[in-house]
Every structure is written in structure tokens, then in C-alpha cells.
Amino acid sequence: MAYMTYAILITGFIYPDRGFNWALFWELLRPDTFLLAAAVLAAIAVAFLNVQIPSALGQLVNIVTTTRAPGEMRASALQLAVLYLAQATFTCVYISLLGMVGERFAERVRNRLFESLLRQDLAFFDTRQSGEIVSRLSGDVQEFKSSFKQVVSIGLRNGLQAVGSLISMYLVSPQLTSYLAVAVPLVIAVGTSLGSLLRSMSKDGQAIVADANGSASEVIGNIRTVRAFGMEDREVNEYSSLAAKCRTLYIKLAFGIGVFTAGSNLFVNSLVLSVIYFGGKLMDQGTLGAGNLMEFLVCTQTIQRALSQTSVLFGQLVRGTSSGSRVFEYLDREPIIPTKGGMTLSSVDGDIEFVRVTFSYPSRPEQAVLRHFDLRLKAGKKTALCGPSGAGKSTIANLVERFYDPTEGAVMLDGHDIRTLDPQWLRSKVIGYVNQEPVLFATSVLENIRYGRPDATPEEVYEAARKANAHQFICGFPEGYDTVVGERGVTLSGGQSQRIAIARAILTRPRILILDESSSAMDAESEHLVQEALDRLTKDKTVLVIAHRLSTIRNADEIAVLHGGEVVELGTHRELLRKQGVYANLVKHQLSGEGGYVV
Ligand SMILES: Nc1ncnc2c1ncn2[C@@H]1O[C@H](COP(=O)(O)OP(=O)(O)OP(=O)(O)O)[C@@H](O)[C@H]1O
């Protein structure tokens, strides 16, 4: 009965929090089952030897304190030396094997987590800071891995040693062992409740650290805006308040772990004291020899060491399991919109139709951005979307790309609901997206251009750059196409970045193009070069342009004027001007004001 109580209490004591997905954990560990089993066997061997050594030592002491026969002494010493050597060898084996298992496991976790993150819906990223997500990939995986290694190595070895030593102690003196057994359940009960408190504190602490990382990386990523508004002090204050929260929580946690560690040390030290005291009494009665007491003491010390290391390990376990839960939370999260899978079409005309589409962003379900929206983007024609900010222009582009799915209705491509088509095929082969405030990666110009088609030859890249009016300025760089652009292409001017983005789109040869036109002004020369490149790119394609410039809109085959998520006017530039409605007003207003920019 007493052992059952121990078992229940110990389970409660080490049981990790609920977010910890055991099934997934084992699945990730499975490829290394053999290595792990070998490491565990080596650790068991070490534990076994550590239990054997005190008895061999006790035997030697018994011989030394009684017969002192040279033959017996030599044999006993030799036996002890062999045990020490074997213990050293197995220790080396299990530590190395476990290191290997830990690293391979962490690699798998990282890869799977990264893959899972990249598959998530855009709605997932709408509601989370990128720094917070990245901290799960780096910090949490690291913490989880080291906890796993330590728990298996120290935990397993110590646990087995403690059990083995307890059995040896019982064999040496059942009476003395039963004295000690009385105090243990009490200590474990206290440990269990303190343990669950510390676990929840640690999880809160990690969440605050992730928050602080998230806001720091956002501020660093947007340093220009922060600088431009002179907001350094405010950002420092906000970061400091998160850091302070984190400090308070971790100090409390450290205190808790301190109490726990000190308590268990005190407990085990009192064990030693009791052994000597009661053992002395038993020796006096003649029921215990000096060697036996020595063996018993070494066993007690093995248990003491095991328990004190386990108490330190406990802190690690607390952090490790909460890191593990944070990792697992994202590891197998299934996105609503898959990144691949579905039908592909052998040829695409590029006719797109919105059929009674109602849509709200998942992060703001109460706000319907589009309501029963109908619009046709005719194959091979250019449709310009214009209208005030917030009217829903980018949302329409997002739905064509299938970054989100409509709440009701459907977006059709050549008569097929795009939800039945392979999203990867759709995005990489059919639709090209030119954001005219483009994001360039911190790599060479060449790699940036061939981002959408990594197998393109350098010649194809040069050709695309020529068509995009980019070849000339790229050749003007000392390192030409090998020039590395800054983290966000900051070493390039706005017009140059745009032309690189256009070259990128030319290379992927999409049938449908989405152009998100820049609303910022460029000098006339730059604007002319970009416009010329765009004209080449968009020729004969279905084009959806989120238009800001009058020149773009004027040349469109059809103009859709949006307001509040609805098409309020539809027609050509001439038709809409004749109507003397919203569009005509917009143009009149803008021409008199900002010269050429419609929204
Ligand atoms: N990721 C998002 N999550 C939640 N709401 C969003 C998101 N993106 C846009 N919205 C909201 O949807 C509405 C339409 O936004 P959208 O970006 O489509 O407008 P827009 O016409 O492209 O505006 P702009 O010309 O300023 O880019 C706005 O009210 C906006 O706040």
C-alpha cells in the first residue's frame, strides 16, 4: 500500500502539463529508438554498477577490518577495480549516445515545427508576433532538448540507482531501511504541490519572454519608423516593463526552486545522520558489521546524491515540459487552407469570377469586408480596382491568391472553384504577385530574381531583368548580379526594388497577375522605367491591379470602383467619366489636388 502511495505521488510530481503531447513526442523519438535503447541500457548498466560498487566496497572493508587475508584482499580489490572501469566505460557510452539522440531529436522537432509554421494560414500570422513564433523555434526547442537529455540521463540513472540502493539497503538491514522509509511520502507530497505551482509559474515566465522577444523584434524590424517618430524612449519603456514582469516572475520561480532544492538536501542529509545514529545502535547490538554499515551509508549517499541531483533536475524538467508544450502547440497544427494538394488544370485562360462572395477576416469575424460581392476579371484583360482606403481592394487580391477562403460564395478560375485547385500550383504557376513595395531577401540580386523559379538559368534571369528594365542598373553595381541586397533591400531605391520584383514575376511566366501599385510617388524617370516594365509584363495576361495612379487606371480595360466592400461603379475610364458619379468625382478631386494619384 505504501508503495502504491509512492507511485501515485511520484507520478503527480513529474507529470508534465496538459499541453504536452506524448503521442507526438514518441513519434518524433521513434527514428532513434535503437540509439535511445542503447543509451538507456548503458545508463541502466551504470546504475547497476553504482549499486554493486558499495557492496563490493563493503566486502573489502569487512576483509580489511577482520581477516586481512592477502589473497582475499587482492581478489576483492580487483573486483572493485573492474567495477570502477566498467562504470567509467558505460558512463562515456551513455552520455555520448544520449547526446546524439538529443541532437537528432531537436533537429527533427525544428524541421517539423518550421514546416508546420510555414504551412499555417495567413490568419494564424495575423494574430501573432513573428518574434514570438521564432522564439518557439529557437529558445523553446533548445530548452526542450536539454531537458530531455538531462531527464533521461540523470533522471533515469539516478532513479534506478535509488531503487537499486534501496533494495541493497533492505538486504543489508531491513530494520534500518524501514526507519528511513517513514519520512519519504510526506516529502513527496509537499514536492508534488510545490512542483505544480512552479510549473505554471515557469510557463507564464516563458510566455512573457516570448512577448518581449516579439515586441523587440518588431521594433528592430521597424527601426526607421521608431526613429522617425522619436519613439526610442517609449519602446525602451515598454520593453523594460515586460522585462521587469519577467524578472519578478523568475525571481519567484528561483525562490521556489531554491526552497525545493534546499528542502530535499536537508531531507537527505538527515537521512545520513539517522543512518549513523541508528546503525551505531544496531552495531552495538551485534546485528550489523562495520562493512555493512559502510555499505549502507554509501547506499544512503547514492540515494542522497540521486535525490539532490533530481531536485536540481526538477527545475529543468519544469522548464522543459512547458517549452515542450509550447513547441507541440504549433508542431502539428493543421491549417484550414492546405498549402498543396488538389486539382491542376492543363491549360489556363485566366478568367476569374467572384460569385456572391461574403468575407470577413478570421481575426475580425464580426466585420464583413465583402458582402455578396460579384466581380468578373476577364481573361487577358486588365481590371483596375480603385476606391478609398479600406474599401477592400487588397482583400480581393488576397482571395484570388487564396490566402483566405470566402465565408460564403466562391472565387472561380475558368469555371472551377479555386478551393478545388492545388494552392501551390495556383500560386507558383498561375498567379504572379507584384507588390510594388516589394520584400527582397538578404541575398544576391540573382537569387532574389529567381526566387519564384529556383531552377532558372542565369541567362533566363538576365533576360527577365532586361525586360524589367533592371539589367542596366544591376550591371552598374560593382558585383553585378552577385550584389547582396540589405535585409529588406534597403540598399536599392524604391524604383529599383520594384523592377527586381517585376523581373521576378516575368521569370515565373504567370497567366494571371496581381499588381499592388505603390501609392508613393517616384521621380518621372523611375516611374517611366517601371511603367514600361509593367506594360511588358502584363501584356495579354489577366491583370488585377490595385491602382493608385491615374495613368494605370486610364489604361485598364475595366475599372471597378469599390466602396465599403461593394462595387459601386464598373466600366471603362470614359464610361465612368460620362456617368459623372463617384469615379468622376474621385478623378476630378485628385487631378486638382495631388496630380495623378487617385487614392
Ligand atoms: N489581415 C487582416 N485582418 C483583419 N482585418 C483586415 C486585414 N486586412 C485588412 N483588414 C480590414 O479589411 C478592410 C479592407 O481592407 P483592405 O486592405 O482590403 O482595403 P484596401 O482597399 O486595400 O485599403 P488600402 O488602399 O488602404 O490598402 C479594412 O477595414 C481592414 O481594416
Q: Record the strand order, biggest sheet.
A: 6-7-8-3-9-10
Going by helix content, strand content and strand pairing, the class is alpha/beta
CATH topology label of the largest domain: Rossmann fold
CATH superfamily of the largest domain: P-loop containing nucleotide triphosphate hydrolases
What distance lies between the first and last C-alpha atoms, to the nearest angstrom?
79 Å
Number of strands: 10
* CATH architectural type of the largest domain: 3-Layer(aba) Sandwich
Summed up, the helix count is 21
Radius of gyration: 35 Å
Helix content: 55-70%
Bound molecules: adenosine-5'-triphosphate
Percentage of β-strand residues: 5-15%
Name the average pLDDT.
82
Q: Which regions are unreliable across 5 or more consecutive residues at pLDDT < 50?
A: 1-16, 594-599
What is the highest CATH level, the class of the largest domain? Alpha Beta
Short synopsis of the structure:
The protein is of the alpha/beta class and 599 residues long.
What does this protein look like?
With about 600 residues, the protein is of the alpha/beta class. The chain is built from 21 helices and ten strands. It has three domains: about 200 residues, Up-down Bundle (ABC transporter transmembrane region fold); about 110 residues; about 230 residues, Rossmann fold (3-Layer(aba) Sandwich), CATH 3.40.50.300. The N terminus and C terminus are likely disordered. The site of adenosine-5'-triphosphate has 12 residues, from helix 12.
